[in-house]
Amino acid sequence: MKSSFSFYVAVVLIFGLGIYCVLMLGSKLDPDRAASGQLSDSSPAAVSPSQPEAPQETLAKIGSVLREHLREPLSILLLQVVVILIAARFISGLFLKVGQPPVIGEMIAGIILGPSLLGMLFPKALLFLFPPSSMGTLRLLSQIGVILFMFIVGMEINARQLREKAHAAVVISHASIIAPFFLGLVLSLFIYRPFAPSNVAFSSFAMFMGVAMSVTAFPVLARIIEERGMADSYLGSTVIACAAVDDVTAWCILASVIAIVKADGIGPAALTVLMASTFTAFMLFVIKPQLKRVIGEGVESRRGLNGIVVGALALAFSSAYFTEIIGIHALFGAFLAGAVMPATGGIRTLLRDKLATFCSAALLPLFFAFTGLRTQISLLNDWQSWVTCAAVIIVAIAGKLGGSMLAARWSAMSWYDSISIGVLMNTRGLMELVILNIGYDLGILTERVFAIMVLMALVTTYMTAPLLSLIDGLATRKRMAQERLVTIA
Q: What is the dihedral of CA 112, 118, 119, 125, to 10 degrees?
């Protein structure tokens, strides 16, 4: 121990002395250069020593330097991340205590941090935390989180469960898409002129509204079913299959709508759809079989597992990149990459364990905050806007909940199961916000329509848990009443 300490002291002294000597020798070079004319009169060596600064001047310089560092892009981004994560965690914890999924709290936290509340009460604080110059960086970072999230959603699609419930899933899910899609088109006839952008065609606006009405939040729905202990029941497995088919179908429709909106004419739109179809077939029939073979060889070693994680991320981002450049959207490619990941050796579970926690806890709250910064509820400042908002919510519920419920009843399910499926399929959550942000980026939705649709997503997601509890309570009372009648008889 003593020898180690002595060696440490000797090394510090020797090298410290060496550093001092080098600095002393180097300091003699400046006068030599000045004497030989290599330094001009304006060089630092030729300037006379300045007078000592006053304490006030020193403090002012320190404050100026700190303010400059505070407004650096990285400093702003780090501060934004800290504030967003704390707010999202706190508010989602409050909603979790009242039986709501955390995603509700995170959505509310994003709106609170935006102009709807923070900007209205403390505009200077909003400008300090989220200056316009920083929004591009926050948007890109949030998009990375959503891409990873869509990759995870794709991996949660259970092909075996879909095959087992294929008949009911296809009937119910497609009814839950067609009905709200049609009602969204009808609603667009009334709100197109007063609310749609002037440079957007009716077909683009109406089709996008139809898609936005049709989506189901598959991940949120899956977690609600798991938390309520319904995962192994007939109702739970059926609604999971319905939501999976719904998401796949809705994303395919959305991809087609985006291709039509982005393309200039029928020809480019048809080419985009053709390239997307070709790429999808390539992923399903070429990449997926190869993944099974490669992953089967890599699960044997820990090093192989690490390589699989890196390869999966590379596949997700490559697929997202390709669908982005062909004119669909990066999120569709990430979803497709997750769907083709094989379940061999528990790879899907491994990837979810490694990605889901970080993505849900750190990256998705950034997306909610970015969406909240875009949501300006103050724009709904007249009776026409609030009537339209109420109409959108009613149409969304009638189309999704009503269409799913009637289709389930048509499939010979009980009224209890049919209503429960309708309520669960009406859950929109994060998936709705993803689609709304796409429409906003494409210029299809104005700021006012965007705010209306965000409120619709909040209402339809929030109402799921209370309605399920109400249905369970009514079913329990009915069963107890029947048991009492049997006992009396």
A: -140
- ∠ CA 228-415-479, nearest 5°, is 70
How far is it, in rounded angstroms, from Cα 232 to Cα 464? 20
The domain limits of the chain are 102-478
The tens digit of pLDDT for each residue in 346-382 reads 788 888 888 888 888 888 888 888 888 889 898 898 8
Cα separation of 407 and 414, whole Å?
A: 11
SS3 state of residue 471: helix
Query: SS in 3 state form for 46-112?
Result: HCCCCCCCCHHHHHHHHHHHHHHHHCCHHHHHHHHHHHHHHHHHHHHHHHHHCCCCHHHHHHHHHHH
**Which three-class secondary structure string do you get for 121-133?**
HCHHHHHHHCCHH
Locate 323 and state its tokens.
Answer: 């669908």
Supply the CATH classification number for the domain 102-478.
1.20.1530.20
The C-alpha atoms of residue 218 and residue 430 are separated, in whole angstroms, by 9
| Phi, psi of 303, deg, nearest 5 | -60, -35
pLDDT tens digits along 195-251: 999 888 898 899 999 999 988 887 777 777 777 777 667 787 788 778 877 877 887
CA distances from 356 to 351, 392, 427 (A): 8, 32, 20
* CB-neighbour burial class of residue 489 (10 A; exposed 0-12, middle 13-18, buried 19+): exposed
Q: Which tokens is 123 given?
A: 């505009």
- Six-digit token pair at 426? 């009406």
B/e letters for 117-136, b = 16+ CB within 10 Å, e = fewer, are bbbeeeeeebeebbeeebee
Sign of CA dihedral 72, 79, 329, 444: negative
Name the pTM for this structure: 0.79
